[in-house]
Input
Amino acid sequence: MKHMPSKPKLKPKTKSKAVKSKAVKPKAVKSEAVKSKTKPKPKTKSNAAASKKGKRATANAKPKPKLLAGGNPQIAKGDGDAPVQAFIAAMPGWKHDLGRRLDALVARTVPGVQKAVKWNSPFYGIEGQGWFLNFHCFTKYVKLAFFRGTSLRPLPPGESTHQEVRYLDIHEHDKLDEKRFVSWIKQASKLPGWVP
Output
């Protein structure tokens, strides 16, 4: 018997039908406001005005200056009264009132005094003559530096490693001798100042 090759099986022909895709509509999602059981308050004129005022106050509010070690405010360097007033406004606690008092005494005693904030301290001087005074906050006191302090009479009490500088430390409950302080300011403002 002869072996006959088997016929290849043919696949039956089928007609391909294009599958129509149906667009699936997404289910409606309820908003959070609808899901929530609490109803938002209706805006009244007074609520809307308060809301706008609060937003404006927040937008115009300046961030509080950072306080460095000892509570000394970190204020950007600048010339003039504005940076000095920003420094004084940022002085913490009882030091704030002392700073205002010192600044007022210097301004009253030396009309036209030059002011600046340098190295996170207010400086006071005479134009073309240099700086004669500055102050700095520490944890328990405010330190005033007279740059030509060794020439003042009576001599300010605090010694310095700098040859001509003398200090006056003012603690919270110390009584400031305004008459003596004003005398030192007058003397210091007439001497050649410190020029960095």
